[in-house]
Amino acid sequence: MSRDPKTLALFTAHRPALVNYASSIVGSRVQAEDLVQEAWLRFDQASRGRFLEDATGYLYRIVRNLALDSRRRMAREGRLTAAADFEAVARTSPDTAPDPETVALYKDEYALVMAAMAELPERTRIACEMHRFGGAKLREIAALLGISVPLAHKLVAEGIEHCKRRRGRR
């Protein structure tokens, strides 16, 4: 908690507007709430023991920068996960009867992906499997593995990149 009641009062007064501002950038109110909380922690740390000339503007700038960083990270994650098209294996359902050529193609793809996954370190493999095959969110992966969300993202991205490289070698 802040030791300066002025900064806390400033944050409290502007919090709803900050959440709306962040939400308009990232497109998610829940994510905006998290970003505003992170902004508060950074603002509180930066304002300790010194006078900030435009404290309100500085607080909004922190929120803006965090929101833009988050949006870029999500876009990058989307590009990485879209590029790894080994989801096609999971999309074939048992109740549809694919032709023999499709079965052979996906059987080979599945074998390559499973071999690549087996080569990954355990934590990376678990994160990648949870995200790509289980549909788990990065926060869920982070909570299960006891790691940060950015590290969960890094593990998933590394796993996907490894699988893409292995698929390219065949």
TrEMBL record:
For whether the record's keyword set contains Transcription, the answer is yes
Give one Pfam family.
Sigma70_r2
Q: Which residues form the RNA polymerase sigma factor 70 region 4 type domain?
A: 112-163
GO biological process entries: DNA-templated transcription initiation
Task: Give the record's keywords alphabetically.
Answer: Sigma factor, Transcription, Transcription regulation
**Which residue range or ranges hold the RNA polymerase sigma-70 region domain?**
10-76
The name this protein carries in UniProt is RNA polymerase sigma-70 factor, ECF subfamily
Species of the source: Tistlia consotensis USBA 355
